[in-house]
Amino acid sequence: MIEALRGLGYNTATALADIIDNSIAAGADLVQLQFDWHEDASRIHLLDNGRGMSSAELDKAMRLGERSPLEVREASDLGRFGLGLKTASFSQCRRLTVATINQNGLECLRWDLDVLAASADDGWHLLEGAHAGSERFLQPLVDAGKGTMVLWEVLDRIVTKGYAVQDFIDLTYQVEQHLGMVFHRFLADKRLRILLNGRAVRAWDPFLTGHPAKPWSPPPAACPVAREVVAQCHVLPHRDRLSSKEYDDAAGPRGWTAQQGFYIYRNERLLVAGSWLGLGSGRGWTKDEAHRLARIRLDITNTADTDWKIDIRKSTARPPVAMRAWLIRLAEVTRARARRAFAHRGKPVGVAQGKPIIEAWKSEKFSGGTRYRIDLEHPSVRTVLDEAGSLLPQIRAMLRIIEETVPVQRIWVDTAEDKETPRTGFAGEPPAEVSSILEVIYGNLITHKGFSPERAREKLLHTEPFHNFPELIAALPDQP
């Protein structure tokens, strides 16, 4: 049975996160992780400064399924199944030692899967004390005088054939990123410190809380059918609105596209880090570049574990049927705003100073899908059409050809490969280039349309793409 439980699907990072849950439940505010490389004799230990366990509590903690998941738990409890410590550890190692400091001093119990495998009977042989020769590894707990240590030895699921020291180093980096994400709310407000090989794990905030360039982040909202479930929608800033460091940090452990979606927290501990939860209009949404800026925080309590189908690893969740319509509405609004921010590279569009922006292109929905048309009322287009004379039919034909040959597939492929929308709106162009075109449109408005200089500037301030260059518009002369 234990060999079968090793295949529940943990990785090293998720396994350690499960054990840190126990440290938090024990009141620890400091967790120290140590990765020691010694090839096949490599080991990992976790030491916390929590209240430790009594002899009876230690014995209970080391038994599988000792506590029913149906029991009512304290509101702050991060556990559920009574399996996490054991299954998480067995998924990575064959020898699990747990030691604690209590009124009797140091107490220690051990599971050794090799001992079980070699046993002639079917007994569950829970052993006392550390493995011969491993007693010295418990010294940091003895020196601390309080808390609990979890020691993994015989790391057969980590140190496999061909595994080298660099792989072990890379593993510590992956663990650091994961723990910084899962416990970021505990780390950010100093309720918890995690040290990995002596280095502090830094909190990773998926939502760039408080960043001034975020285009949308409304207040939290409670679910109408379950008031204890609270959601807050976030649209993150476009890459153009972030520094290089901010952009790299906000990408998260799995990158911008993979990190989009819902973030489900149970008692502030992250369970699901970026998923659309199988929701969608018609079929489930997939992760794509257009919605990479959309992230939604969702807080649930530990009384909702059954409703949300929380698994033993605390890494998957499925929303109750009664909440799906509400979640879909939240996601649709957030996805639409994220798509717009991504397409327009984070610059405000649609309205400026309370007035609508005149866009050069408009999309039309019809039974066969979507098509794109040039807006003939855009000032630069309208001026040419009004002055075209006998060339009007040829110009209209040219515009129609442009509309019918928009390289949609190429744009889509380039966006997917580059993970960025193509640059438009004079992005990256020198101001002189923009000014030369701006002056032509400005002159036409005054000379051919009878606009005053003031009104012409106002018109340009609400016309795409010139609305992005108010300082150049303000510098236009009164006499073009």
What can you see in these coordinates?
This protein has helices at 2-5, 12-25, 55-61, 84-90, 113-118, 139-144, 165-182, 184-188, 244-250, 305-308, 321-343, 379-386, 392-404, 408-418, 431-447, 453-461, 470-474; strands at residues 30-36, 43-48, 95-102, 105-112, 127-128, 148-153, 193-196, 199-200, 221-223, 226-235, 261-266, 269-275, 294-300, 351-352, 355-356, 361-366, 369-374. The mean pLDDT is 90. Strand 3 (95-102) and strand 4 form a beta hairpin. The chain has three domains: 2-200, Heat Shock Protein 90 (2-Layer Sandwich); 221-343, no CATH class; 355-474, no CATH class. It is α+β, with helices and mostly antiparallel strands.
> What is the molecular shape?
elongated
CATH topology of the largest domain: Heat Shock Protein 90
Number of contiguous helices: 17
Mean pLDDT: 90
How many strands?
17
* Helix content range: 25-40%
Radius of gyration: 30 Å
Question: Mind sketching the topology for me?
Answer:
Layout: H1 2-5, H2 12-25, E1 30-36, E2 43-48, H3 55-61, H4 84-90, E3 95-102, E4 105-112, H5 113-118, E5 127-128, H6 139-144, E6 148-153, H7 165-182, H8 184-188, E7 193-196, E8 199-200, E9 221-223, E10 226-235, H9 244-250, E11 261-266, E12 269-275, E13 294-300, H10 305-308, H11 321-343, E14 351-352, E15 355-356, E16 361-366, E17 369-374, H12 379-386, H13 392-404, H14 408-418, H15 431-447, H16 453-461, H17 470-474
Parallel strand pairs: 1-7, 11-13
Antiparallel strand pairs: 1-2, 2-6, 3-4, 3-6, 4-5, 7-8, 9-10, 10-13, 11-12, 14-15, 16-17
Helix pairs in contact: 2-4, 2-7, 15-16
